[in-house]
Amino acid sequence: MSASLDKGINALKRQVDSTVASFFSSCVHCGLCAEACLFYTETGDPKRTPINKTEPLRRIWKSEFTLIGRVGKMLGLTKRVDDKFLEEWQELVYDSCTLCGRCSMVCPVGNDIALMIRKTREGMAAAGQAPDGLIGATTRAVTIGSPMGVKWPALQAQIRHVEEDTGLKVPVDVAGVDYMLLLSSMEIMNFPEFIEAVAKIFDKAGATWTISSEAFEATNSGIQIGVSDIAAELVQRVVDSAEKLRVKTVISPECGHAYTAIRWDGPNLIGKAFTFKVRHILEVLDDLRKAGRLKLSGKESRKLTYHDPCQISRRGGATAAARYLLEDATDFREMTPTGNFNWCCGGGGGVQAMSRAADLRHKVFQIKMKQVEDTGASMMLSACANCRLTMDDSKAYWNWDHELESLVELLAEHLVEDEPHPFDAKPHLATNM
Ligand code: SF4
Ligand code: SF4
Questions:
Q1: What is the pLDDT of residue 78?
Q2: Torsion angle, CA of 292/295/300/301, rounded to 10 degrees?
Q3: What is the rounded distance in angstroms from the CA atom of residue 247 to the CA atom of residue 56?
Q4: How confident is the model at residue 419 (pLDDT cuts 50, 70, 90)?
Q5: Contact 218, 183 (CB under 8 A)
Q6: Is 3 exposed, middle or buried (CB count within 10 Å of its CB: 0-12, 13-18, 19+)?
Q7: Which of 6, 146, 178, 209 is deepest in the core (most CB within 10 A)?
Q8: pLDDT digits (tens, 9 = 90+) for 256-283
Q9: Ligand 2: which of 32, 37, 40, 102 to mutate, judged by most atoms within 8 Å of the beta carbon?
Q10: How far apart are CA 234 and CA 258, in angstroms?
Q11: Which residues is 252 bridged to in the sheet?
């Protein structure tokens, strides 16, 4: 057995716990998860069914943790996990799964298949079977601090542009403020308008905030590739900066898996509770709206629909916040299905970072185009830069003419202008006395 295969098998064994055991032993092979997965429905390929993607982990569970499997192993009857098998499954575990969790929603026995696929990735990565695109992104995240290789001077340059365009100061390394904003490299390099939007909204809302020069990156490649140690190291960088700056809340930006990584997995990854809250930007904006600090005008009359990013709505819980923020839009149309059952864009879970998966991404994106077309909307909003990048790419591939925009950026375009200050009327009142 090669050293890497040995590592991979040991990593898979370490993933087997009571949750995994109960999931595998309770699967009734009903096939419902298949119909919930866009990689199956759009390709019709039976090997892309969700439960089949967990086969490396299932084989280890069966052969090492069940009596029948152990006997079968002794008799040479159990299906083996070897390099050839893992190589064959690489495309299924990584390219054909965005970890969107839609399959987990429909399983009648409550099997969280997306979690099982993440656990399978832990074994694949340890066995040296992770795709090159994700290995490169993860290496850059660890050594440079960003999966796209974005360094602080690049963000500084974008901040300067934002300050010139808005006349507003973007706070950096300011201690004791309410919010520390994280950014994904995609926002910094592809959508810097997002930083501008946040600066305008927070200025109007009177919110105190900062960006940390030491930990600005929100994305967590450790989660995507399946290496928990790296995921924990990247979370720890954010925690160290948030504690150093004594902020009350860390804001996860418009990036799906970043939110999962820092909010839902973060404390477990580093083994301790955070001293600050973590909120998604949509939740923060909705809080400000409820407090009367974010006032929006209802002038947006384009036909809009909203794409729920899987890790922000279905897996993250910010489904309703997006709708509350869109209350002032005059022609908002829901997709079918929508909210927690919305279809994925096809590029999450690291799929967008794998150039070899582009054709498959474009193929499965057809389900999203049909959903949007069925609403009659001319513009699709989203709250995830990775979804946006994926959709922009597939939109160009299919020559699709619908507009795409960030929800936060749209809100910034509709801020209510300053209302007259009550004291402005004083001289007039004085004349009447
Ligand atoms: S998590 Fe999403 S992409 Fe992955 S198998 Fe399940 S439905 Fe398919
Ligand atoms: S939906 Fe659940 S029970 Fe049915 S095949 Fe999939 S994992 Fe098994």
A1: 83
A2: 50
A3: 42
A4: low
A5: yes
A6: exposed
A7: 146
A8: 999 999 999 999 999 999 999 999 999 9
A9: 32
A10: 11
A11: 280
257: CB partners within 8 A, 6+ apart: 99, 219, 220, 223, 224, 311, 348, 349, 386
What is the residue whose two structure tokens read 């582009």? 358
Judge if the beta carbon of residue 117 lies within 6 A of ligand 2. Answer: no
Pocket test for ligand 2, best of 53, 109, 117 (most atoms within 8 A of CB): 109
Tokens coding 254? 């418009």
* 45/34 Cα distance (integer angstroms): 10
Residue 421 pLDDT grade (very low, low, confident, very high; cuts 50, 70, 90): very low
* CA of residue 227 relative to chain centroid, distance: 17
The residue whose CA has the least distance to atom 1 of ligand 2 is 107
For residue 26, the ligand closest to its alpha carbon is 2
Per residue in 219-238, pLDDT tens?
A: 999 999 999 999 999 999 99
Q: Which two tokens stand for residue 170?
A: 């973007």
How high is the pLDDT of residue 79?
A: 86
Residue 26 Cα distances to 19, 22, 29, 112, 257, angstroms = 11, 6, 9, 12, 28
Task: Extract the tokens encoding 358.
Answer: 């582009």
- The partner residues of 307 in beta bridges, in order of sequence, read 382
Q: Whole-angstrom Cα distance, residue 264 to residue 45? A: 32
Question: Per the structure block, which two tokens stand in for 234?
Answer: 């990247």
C-alpha 339 – ligand 1 centre gap (Å) = 16
Q: Is 21 in the pocket of ligand 2 (CB under 6 A)?
A: no
Give yes or no for a cis peptide into 337 (omega within 30° of 0): yes
**Tokens 């050839």 sit on residue:** 84
